[in-house]
């Protein structure tokens, strides 16, 4: 390996950079303030600015949205019997579940990922529109099959007709929801207001005619919603058609990206839907359809605050994404807590009003005697709405951090409490018991969301200390820009430290033409500085010998180490390209089998001279191999100097055996993956990369010795895991127990494949 004198790169920039005055920025989370000269002046201008401001339009939109929902329920309740209102509410719960799936699988991923540079803005929007169409088609098929089944098995005729009404309504409701969410994602609230106002006028007009002519029913009310959504959404789609571009070659990749994030969001949304609609589904067999209708009427009164809540909720995710992007965890936590306090204060006032006037409002809005005397139920449900509202900012914050698993865990707690409570308390205390169950589930869910959010912040160390340390390192790297406003975002947590990606606000380069850099922070202990220096030296060697080589069409890249800091311990390097193989193999789509085989050959061919020179990567695992199949780029990251290991087998090929054993040990110790297909793909990759190296050897005896050496090193790496009575130590003990037989089987399979010729890559051996 060529010798390098690098310890740290010079801190000076080029001559043009020294002469340019340092830019000064101000930390911000919300929209940039306007220039003083552009502020509207005068009472009329201020009034116009208020009316057309984002928050006012959002509030007006939700007033229209929630007001339409309330008036629809009131019209159905006043013009029919309570059982019809119960049937209509069940239909709305089915529609709400479909919208929740759409929100999780399509709309939230679009809102969160629409800034990603993989596609243009119109292509991101086009893929989301296509996904909405596919979901609408699937929902139509499922609902039609359900309606046919209900007819065949002799279900209640009213419920059967309701199912056929949903077959017509759900696809257009999904399209309408896509239009308004697209507008909110772009903070174009005026378009959302126009869509919802159009639906409101048409829907209430049809319902008014049905009530006036005595034709009102749950079926007619559902069809009225479908007609209103169809006419409005089709007009909007025609007007906005130029904003959507659908490219067939991007469909599979876009679908996979949305699914990776959306599958967990969907699970979370489904648990929320089950929690919200469980009472409507469980009360008919427990208490009857009439009681279900009365409960639905109580819920409409308790939900009178929805215009205010939804106005804030529709902007919670975009604002959380912006706060996390610009200010990291500190700004995100501040934004979430500010939103929670604001929602709690508004809902507290609402609950006080409901406590004193809930029963009176119920008697005024619904005239049937069955609706009277339920003021306590309305108050309990209003408090439950407040608890849910307080937990919403934490859930949206976790979504902006792309941590959907935590959302699923938190919402599942509230759902379980609600389901158990409705089943137990409604039988004993009727509607009041059901309301108490909903309240208990809402409180449990809100507490779980905040606990999960704070736990995620603590786990990623993005609460502020990490950012301050990154800023200290950047000031050492760029002393000419002490007051610069850096865009610092967490990239992930490695075994040794926390990774952050850093960019300069605006379009300027951060360092020597690089727009983004990576800062790896190590624990602030005595060993942190030594680890940083050791990995800096290892990365320098790997970069000098490996970066820029091309094998089998694959271009190899390694991060360029730029600076090592002793206090705080940190390593600064350039960004690497691609997605780590751990995620690629888990997704099962990219890279494809043939491409994966060529990638394996390229990695071995690139690393073999490095190993022959007596150097090892030191931490070669699936997570440290990044690939970008579209451009055929493979990046090797996180090099380290390997620790000394004791084995009972002579180390004739030590550097290679250490790195190959690292991949095998990494695959074998993965005990958190339960999908057998993913496990098989990872094991096959480990076998193929070992086979690729064995293919460079001349005799079967050499291959046999190499397999024995790799196995000995892999078992030594297992023994090096710290085992103790701590949770982490017990986890390592479990890893040892499961990994040892896995390693033995993997090496035995590899040896078996070497015994039958030189064809080391079998068909379908890749992901």
UniProtKB/TrEMBL annotation:
Transmembrane segments: 43-65, 85-108, 129-153, 159-175, 187-212, 218-238, 340-365, 377-394, 406-425, 431-458
Protein topology in the membrane: Multi-pass membrane protein
Species this chain originates from: Bradyrhizobium macuxiense
UniProt GO cellular component terms: plasma membrane
Keyword annotations of the record: Cell membrane, Membrane, Transmembrane, Transmembrane helix
Record-linked InterPro entries: Kinase-like_dom_sf (IPR011009), Poly_Biosynth_Transport (IPR050833)
Chain coiled-coil ranges: none
Stated name of the protein: O-antigen/teichoic acid export membrane protein
Location within or outside the cell: Cell membrane
SUPFAM superfamilies named in the record: Protein kinase-like (PK-like) (SSF56112)
């Amino acid at each position: 390996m060529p010798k390098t004198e690098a310890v740290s790169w010079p801190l000076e920039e080029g001559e043009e950079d020294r002469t340019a005055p340092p830019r000064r920025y101000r930390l911000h989370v919300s929209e940039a303030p306007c220039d003083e000269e552009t502020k509207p002046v005068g009472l009329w201008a201020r009034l116009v600015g208020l009316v057309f401001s984002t928050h006012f339009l959002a509030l007006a939109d939700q007033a229209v949205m929630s007001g339409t929902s309330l008036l629809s329920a009131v019209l159905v309740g006043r013009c029919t019997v309570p059982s019809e209102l119960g049937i209509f509410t069940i239909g709305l719960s089915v529609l709400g579940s479909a919208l929740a799936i759409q929100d999780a699988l399509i709309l939230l991923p679009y809102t969160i990922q629409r800034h990603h540079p993989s596609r243009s803005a119109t292509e991101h929007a086009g893929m989301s529109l296509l996904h909405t169409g596919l979901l609408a088609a699937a929902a139509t098929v499922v609902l039609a099959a359900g309606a046919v089944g209900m007819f065949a098995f002799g279900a209640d005729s009213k419920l059967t007709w309701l199912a056929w009404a949903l077959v017509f309504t759900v696809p257009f409701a999904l399209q309408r929801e896509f239009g308004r969410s697209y507008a909110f994602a772009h903070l174009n609230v005026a378009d959302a207001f126009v869509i919802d106002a159009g639906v409101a006028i048409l829907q209430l007009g049809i319902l008014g005619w049905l009530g006036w002519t005595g034709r009102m029913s749950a079926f007619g009310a559902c069809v009225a919603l479908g007609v209103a959504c169809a006419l409005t959404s089709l007009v909007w789609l025609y007007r906005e058609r130029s904003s959507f571009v659908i490219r067939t070659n991007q469909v599979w990749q876009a679908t996979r990206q949305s699914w990776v994030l959306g599958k967990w969001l969907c699970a979370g949304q489904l648990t929320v839907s089950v929690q919200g609609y469980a009472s409507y589904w469980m009360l008919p067999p427990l208490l009857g359809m009439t009681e279900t209708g009365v409960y639905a009427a109580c819920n409409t009164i308790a939900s009178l605050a929805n215009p205010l809540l939804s106005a804030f909720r529709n902007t919670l995710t975009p604002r959380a994404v912006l706060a996390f992007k610009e200010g990291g965890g500190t700004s995100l936590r501040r934004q979430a807590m500010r939103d929670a306090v604001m929602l709690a204060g508004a809902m507290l006032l609402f609950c006080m009003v409901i406590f004193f006037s809930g029963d009176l409002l119920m008697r005024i809005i619904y005239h049937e005697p069955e609706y009277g005397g339920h003021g306590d139920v309305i108050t309990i449900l209003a408090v439950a709405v407040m608890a849910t509202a307080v937990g919403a900012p934490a859930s949206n914050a976790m979504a902006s951090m792309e941590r959907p698993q935590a959302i699923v865990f938190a919402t599942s707690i509230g759902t379980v409490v609600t389901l158990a409570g409705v089943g137990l308390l409604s039988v004993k205390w009727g509607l009041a018991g059901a309301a108490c169950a909903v309240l208990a589930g809402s409180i449990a869910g809100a507490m779980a969301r905040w606990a999960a959010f704070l736990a995620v912040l603590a786990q990623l160390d993005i609460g502020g200390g990490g950012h301050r340390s990154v800023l200290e390192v950047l000031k050492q790297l760029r002393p000419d820009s002490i007051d610069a406003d850096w865009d610092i975002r967490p990239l992930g947590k490695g075994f040794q430290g926390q990774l952050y990606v850093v960019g300069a606000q605006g379009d300027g380069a951060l360092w020597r033409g690089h727009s983004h850099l990576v800062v790896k922070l190590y624990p602030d202990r005595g060993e942190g500085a030594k680890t940083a220096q050791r990995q800096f030296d290892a990365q320098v060697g790997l970069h000098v010998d490996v970066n820029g080589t091309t094998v089998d069409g694959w271009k190899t890249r390694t991060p360029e180490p730029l600076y090592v800091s002793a206090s705080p311990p940190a390593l600064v390097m350039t960004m690497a390209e691609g997605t780590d193989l751990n995620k690629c193999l888990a997704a099962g789509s990219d890279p494809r089998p043939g491409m994966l085989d060529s990638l394996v050959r390229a990695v071995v061919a690139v690393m073999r001279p490095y190993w022959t020179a007596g150097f090892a990567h030191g931490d070669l695992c699936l997570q440290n191999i990044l690939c970008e199949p579209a451009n055929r780029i493979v990046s090797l990251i996180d090099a380290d100097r390997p620790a000394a290991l004791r084995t009972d087998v002579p180390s004739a090929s030590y550097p290679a055996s250490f790195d190959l054993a690292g991949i095998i040990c990494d695959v074998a110790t993965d005990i958190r993956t339960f999908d057998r297909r993913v496990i098989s793909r990872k094991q096959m990759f480990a076998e193929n990369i070992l086979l690729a190296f064995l293919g460079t050897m001349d005799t079967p005896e050499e291959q046999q010795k190499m397999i024995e050496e790799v196995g000995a090193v892999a078992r030594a790496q297992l023994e090096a895991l710290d085992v103790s009575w701590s949770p982490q130590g017990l986890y390592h003990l479990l890893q040892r127990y499961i990994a040892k037989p896995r390693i033995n089987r993997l090496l035995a399979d590899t040896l078996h494949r070497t015994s039958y010729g030189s064809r080391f890559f079998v068909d379908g051996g890749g992901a």
